[in-house]
Design goal:
The protein has one domain: 2-Layer Sandwich (Muramoyl-pentapeptide Carboxypeptidase, domain 2). Helix content is 27%, strand content 16%. The chain contains six helices and seven strands. The strands form two sheets. It has a five-stranded mixed β-sheet with strand order 2-4-5-7-6. The chain has a two-stranded antiparallel sheet with strand order 1-3. A hairpin with a 2-residue loop joins strand 6 and strand 7. Helix 2 packs across helix 5. The two termini are 17 Å apart. 35% of the residues are buried.
């Protein structure tokens, strides 16, 4: 792993995570290439920003739960290959109910060169510190639909307020939003704005095993 990349949980105490692409619980329905362990990786700058966001969210009664951080380029390539396969319907209703999977790139929900691969972009949400329950946001992670856009109509006032709270927390902490995905934020002063990395997300012993192959 690049020396400036770390496991986020090691530098941001109290943060929760669920690395969706290391599991079957994602829009492809299977673990994605490059995700060998269910942990979140990012640059040390990203971790500092998330630490600040965590401190801002706490007095509001919220904690942060991260779904994705650094994403290897091989994972993006996996998405591209998956998008060209015949539709099997397994994840369509939950993740892309109103579009064909082949249109995800054209519509801006997935990119052939993802900001995640630069190491300073995160997908995340809020949870209630008192209960541990996720804050309602009017749609889940990777729901590729206009309802996921910032300012989308058709969600409740509570969901709107929660989205606005997340956006405020992240912008004050130094992140910029993405207009099509309420969960997606990129560090404004990212350290590698022109570099797309491809090392796998793995524990140290897994990296050694890969190097010996």
């Amino acid at each position: 792993m690049n020396d400036d990349f770390v496991f986020v949980d090691e530098l941001v105490p109290g943060i929760r995570w669920d690395a969706k692409y290391a599991t079957r619980d994602n829009f492809t329905g299977e673990p994605v290439d490059g995700y060998l362990v269910n942990r979140i990786v990012g640059t040390t700058s990203l971790c500092r920003g998330l630490g600040t966001a965590h401190e801002i969210a706490e007095p509001l009664g919220f904690g942060l739960l991260v779904w994705d951080g650094y994403r290897p380029q091989r994972a993006v390539d996996f998405f591209m290959g998956w998008s060209q396969q015949p539709e099997d319907g397994r994840t369509k209703q939950r993740h892309y109910p109103n579009i064909h999977r082949s249109k995800m790139f054209d519509m801006g929900y997935i990119s052939a060169k993802s900001g995640h691969s630069r190491g300073s972009t995160v997908d995340l949400t809020l949870y209630h510190l008192a209960s541990g329950e996720l804050a309602p946001m009017g749609g889940g992670h990777d729901l590729m639909d206009p309802i996921s856009h910032h300012g989308a109509p058709g969600i409740t006032s509570t969901e709107t307020k929660n989205r606005e709270s997340l956006r405020t927390v992240m912008e004050v902490a130094g992140f910029r939003p993405y207009d099509r995905e309420w969960w997606h934020y990129t560090l404004r002063d990212e350290p590698y704005p022109d570099t797309f990395f491809d090392f796998p997300i793995a524990e140290f012993d897994q990296v050694n095993q890969l190097a010996r192959r």
